[in-house]
Amino acid sequence: MSNRRTIPEGGPIPLQSPPAQSPPSIANADPYIDLIEDLTPSLLLRCVGSAPDLSWMIERANTRALELLGVFDPSDLVGEPLGQIVSGRDFHALWSLLAAAATGACPTPVEISARTLPGDHVPVRVGARLVEPGSIRLVFAMIEAIDQTASRLRASEQRYRQLFHAMPIALLRIDSRGSLAMFQESRRQGVTDFDAYLRANPAAFERALDTICIAEANEHAEKMFGDGTPRSILRPVRVFWQARPDTFRRILMARYSGRRDVIEETVVCGVAGQRVPVLFSMAFPINDPRLGNSLMGMIDMSGQIRAEAELRRTQARFADAARTSTTNELAASIAHEVSQPLSSIATNGATALRWLSKSPPDLRRAASRIQCILDDAERANVVISRMRDMSSGVLVERSDVDLNAVVREALLILNDEILAKAVEVRLHLDEELPTLPGDHVQLNQVMVNLIINAMQAMEKSGSVRPAIDIVTRLLDDGWLALEVKDSGPGIGAAHLTRIFDSFFTTKSAGLGIGLAVSRSIVEAHNGSLLASNGGLGGAVFTVRLPTIVLTAEKVAALPDGVGQVFLAQTRG
């Protein structure tokens, strides 16, 4: 190309031209080897003199630049002056770009027409930066390609906005740049415990509430949190976290620690004062030192909470009806137990009268009988109080419950019926059991239901030697287990899957709610109830109960099958 080394049309430019130099050897160009691997067309210029000039030499060109300029042999371009590819007319636009880049600045790209080796002109946008003193890198982008990229970008943004506004949940775009200064200052101080930093600097927390803003919201978010006017929620986030500033604090902590997202159930306030229970999630951009946009999604939990409240009310009504039914089933047994102390009271009263009628009265023996009367009256009162507690719909506060004591109390309630039916009860109780948090009366009701169910099953089948084994033990996972085994025929395969259904019964006089109530009570204690058949025959009911109070988060984290009813057929 040496025969074409001339100043192109437009005339010479009145700038100082340096003496001609030989192009540097490629072997000595190691600092610029990365240009060969660039995906963007780029050239390396050797700057000679104090001002840009068309004679500045092209020192290196990457493959993409050669393709753009129609050059197959690099030697046709490397070592040539800049004027080979830029006309004098276009150099006027390029001059300020090169002059600024030579000072180390980052000038705005300019548009010129680059001349290819075959003589065509290609519209390009050129950027420049100083690589090292005396070397400037030119980067080319075809304007047509830029327009196509811009078009694709606009289409992508349109798809994003359509998706953003069409999603059936509340979506918010959060501008977090207001927290940048706070994060920079805390990192400068070497803060690792950001929660402690916020508590020690409440003003920083307050500034974050006022400087972090909602930049965009979809229609669902406007309906959920707005006041009916367009864009009413595009404001600082302070108003939204009035009810739960602790949630906002955790958002800041998560962002500071580098977490990718935050998910939490909380309450968000609307601009009209409404409070909305939501499940919210917030995603943070990766490697964004400017703390730009974050995306927050919220699902309204109001309907679910109302449904859960209605379910609890329904369960309470059902449990109340079940308690009434259970009381009816227990009435005969309790009547026996109450009649015994009443009969004893009558006998002891008559005996005391006889001792008092003697002459002289035997006061010592009479006093002994009167004391027996008082003891029997107290025993009857305890039985009646227990009956009242079990039939009452009043919720009892949870306390430490001794599971073995629950078993023994249930047997005391059913003692007469157990004796009348000649049922052998064998106890295998672990006396080292820890207590559990629960409602003593409700757990007693479960125990009574399971024992009555076992006795009725054995009576119906005509069991010759009816027996019930009651076992308590501490499991390896720290839970308590209670088993009630009977010597009856077991549970039929057709009944096994329905045994806990409300109003399901195989007895002509039963209501079929005793086991359903037991299941509800156990589940209310975050426990589980298992119905199965023993390996040697008979039915086995197993209750599992936690020894600690489980939060909603802990219940959700339990393995599948824990905290609900199990149904299983065991083969021996």
Write down the Rg: 44 Å
Tell me the helix content. Answer: 40-55%
Number of strands: 18
Question: Biggest sheet, open or closed, and with what strands and sense?
Answer: 6 strands, mixed
Tally of helical runs: 16
Q: pLDDT average, as an integer? A: 78
CATH class of the largest domain equals Alpha Beta
Our count of domains comes out at 4
Quaternary organization: single chain
Q: Can you describe what's shown?
A:
This protein is an alpha+beta fold. It folds into four domains: 2-146, PAS domain (Beta-Lactamase); 167-300, 2-Layer Sandwich (Beta-Lactamase); 310-394, Helix Hairpins, CATH 1.10.287; 396-572, Heat Shock Protein 90 (2-Layer Sandwich), CATH 3.30.565.10. It is built from 16 helices and 18 strands.
Question: Could you name the key traits of this structure?
Answer:
6-stranded mixed β-sheet; Beta-Lactamase; 16 helices; disordered C terminus; 18 strands; elongated; alpha+beta
Layout of helices and strands:
Layout: E1 42-46, E2 57-61, H1 63-68, H2 88-102, E3 110-115, E4 121-132, E5 135-142, H3 143-166, E6 170-175, H4 180-188, H5 194-200, H6 202-211, E7 213-217, H7 219-225, H8 245-257, E8 261-269, E9 275-283, E10 293-300, H9 302-357, H10 363-391, E11 399-401, H11 403-413, H12 415-420, E12 424-429, E13 436-438, H13 440-461, E14 467-474, E15 480-486, H14 493-496, H15 514-524, E16 528-533, E17 539-545, H16 552-556, E18 565-567
Parallel strand pairs: 12-14, 16-18
Antiparallel strand pairs: 1-2, 1-5, 3-4, 4-5, 6-7, 6-10, 8-9, 9-10, 11-13, 14-15, 15-17, 16-17
Helix pairs in contact: 9-10, 11-13, 13-15
